[in-house]
Task: inverse folding
């Protein structure tokens, strides 16, 4: 693709990188075949190729973003399926991230949308605030259907109340700063990203992770001062808040690296893992670039760490069939496709893969709140494909997907909870509740 940026424009590192990405696109259109929004809407501008043209014109022109550009970029899930499909190696993730930040700098959104985005930014990355907000939303959940109107604001409010859980688990003590010692001889030492939304919605995931790793002889460190990885702000184009959150994590983990050292920084939410693995790029022009690159190099999904240290079950096979849902951030963002399935099979589960496994479930961070109509269509499509597998339960490695898919008849469980159960941990509570309901 030809570009026509000025020398002054190319002096900006973000624009220079976007120029490189744009010039790698050969207009082939293969990305359209695997883009969820193009699949649903059939509009070229709601495909990666169409968005690339819009972003190119916006950045080259150096003018404020238009409503048309914002509408089509906002509809992008950042599922990154296009990057898996692209034969030319177009790094769409970095391009659309730059576009989102540019939009936030140059475009004034309607005030209800500005207020909602600011509220999400102030609540979701902070577990204490988010827990309180969910308790309030849980009380109001029954009245969600009474929110009037068909406006986007009304749709978003209804989606927020619909997604709020009926009850909020208590905070888990394992997420407090501290060291969880290995059982037996220490085979490794890792830090765990305890995250933000996940530790509020499903603290059992971090509990299972720590139990399983320590049982395998791995010491687990929960560092002080770590927090949200920054991805929620990053994908809304809130550059400075995202960098502030990421910088705190880099500082916290760098102290551990310089101290007793770390074999890995374990991430059990794949959306967060994709971002942490990108810290090296995000901080390439910052004073912390070397520390950020070290953190990115150490970051690993829980499935990678379990394979590295030789996961083995201690219980007999459970006789359950699992529909494995491949989170976009894991399969497309981190290119991890086989490890979770292999681990589940090792644990004794029969693993089924639903059709269209490469297509997003519609969760995508805050997407199911900000684009609820499209998110619901993708959810229904994903659910139908999962139901056709005949599985007993859904396994996935991302809290957003579990929240999106877990409110139906088939329970949705984090992969690590199933692996922990088969290696001596407790049965995931959602399985017991599903049996009781049946």
Result:
């Amino acid at each position: 693709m030809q570009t026509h940026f000025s020398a002054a424009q190319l002096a900006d590192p973000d624009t220079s990188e976007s120029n490189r990405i744009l010039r790698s696109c050969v207009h082939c259109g293969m990305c359209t075949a695997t883009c969820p929004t193009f699949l649903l809407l059939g509009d070229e501008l709601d495909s990666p190729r169409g968005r690339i043209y819009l972003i190119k014109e916006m950045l080259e022109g150096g003018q404020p973003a238009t409503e048309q550009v914002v509408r089509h970029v906002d509809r992008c899930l950042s599922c990154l399926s296009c990057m898996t499909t692209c034969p030319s190696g177009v790094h769409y993730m970095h391009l659309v991230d730059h576009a989102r930040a540019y939009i936030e700098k140059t475009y004034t959104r309607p005030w209800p949308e500005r207020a909602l985005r600011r509220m999400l930014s102030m609540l979701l990355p902070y577990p204490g605030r988010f827990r309180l907000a969910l308790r309030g939303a849980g009380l109001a959940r029954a009245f969600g259907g009474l929110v009037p109107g068909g406006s986007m604001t009304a749709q978003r409010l209804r989606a927020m109340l619909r997604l709020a859980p009926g009850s909020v688990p208590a905070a888990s003590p394992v997420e407090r700063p501290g060291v969880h010692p290995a059982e037996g001889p220490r085979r490794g030492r890792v830090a765990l990203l305890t995250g933000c939304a996940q530790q509020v919605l499903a603290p059992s995931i971090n509990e299972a992770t720590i139990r399983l790793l320590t049982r395998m002889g791995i010491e687990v460190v929960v560092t002080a001062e770590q927090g949200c990885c920054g991805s929620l702000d990053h994908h809304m184009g809130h550059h400075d808040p995202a960098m502030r959150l990421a910088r705190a994590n880099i500082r916290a983990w760098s102290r551990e690296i310089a101290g007793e050292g770390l074999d890995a920084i374990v991430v059990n939410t794949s959306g967060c893992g994709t971002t942490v693995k990108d810290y090296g790029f995000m901080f390439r022009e910052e004073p912390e670039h070397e520390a950020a690159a070290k953190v990115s190099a150490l970051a690993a999904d829980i499935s990678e760490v379990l394979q590295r240290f030789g996961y083995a079950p201690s219980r007999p096979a459970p006789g359950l069939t699992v529909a494995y849902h491949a989170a976009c951030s894991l399969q497309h963002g981190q290119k991890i496709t086989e490890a979770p399935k292999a681990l589940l099979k090792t644990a004794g589960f029969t693993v089924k893969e639903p059709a269209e496994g490469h297509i997003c479930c519609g969760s995508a961070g805050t997407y199911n709140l900000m684009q609820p109509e499209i998110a619901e269509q993708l959810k229904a499509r994903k659910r139908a494909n999962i139901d056709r597998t005949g599985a007993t339960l859904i396994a996935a490695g991302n809290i957003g997907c579990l929240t999106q898919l877990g409110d139906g008849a088939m329970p949705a469980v984090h992969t690590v909870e199933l692996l922990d159960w088969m290696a001596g941990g407790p049965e995931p509570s959602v399985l017991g509740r599903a049996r009781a309901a049946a």
